[in-house]
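Most newcomers find our protein records easier to grasp once they have seen one. Read left to right, the backbone structure tokens trace the chain's path through space. Nothing more is needed to start thinking about how sequence determines fold. An example says more than a description, so a record of this kind follows:
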Amino acid sequence: MQMPDSGSEISIRYSDLELSRAELYSTLGYGTSEPQADALALINRLLAEADNICRPRAGIRILDGAVEGPRLRLSGNWFAPGGIISHFLKGCDVFSIILATVGLEMDEWIQSYRVSGDVMEAFVADGIGSVVAEAVVDKTKKVLAQRVAKEGCSITNSYSPGYCGWHVREQQALFALLPKDFCGVTLTDSSLMLPLKSVSSVIGIGRDVLSQPYRCDVCRKKDCFRRKDS
């Protein structure tokens, strides 16, 4: 079984990411349709800019822990992710915290469009940032899965404060388990991550665990850009 560690960054490049056009179009409100020519040209231009700007960063820390009812213990620290998340982490006694970010450069690029006054450019840049952030998460999960597979283990899906009833205030305690300024990400007093397009998650590790699809029908976060309507 993978032993607990103090946390380390992984090497990750923008070219390593698997960006889904379909997911981007859905995030931007086009559903399963392709944008019309003018919008598509804008999307392509901003994607090319992102390719030159984005410097993603990600890191992994592995800890011992346990699930007891709706509570989760990580290295002696108790969390309250709620029954939904605890159910999917049940049976694990080793966990990973992953931290993923698009990086400061891309975050500043997105912000420059927010203040530019062009609403459409700002909207598309923000959508690209969200999809890139999730692509960094997906790449990090693949790296973790490859590591633990060497020891005959698998991973669950990733679960983050702010989703499925897990209060975002517990982000503070989660960050306390990570090295200072891990991956260049900091946390404000209101638990907002900086850069803004950053994601922290907990993943269960075990020999008999499954990475099950996200259950949008049991999550109350209606504004999640990955939400699948039933």
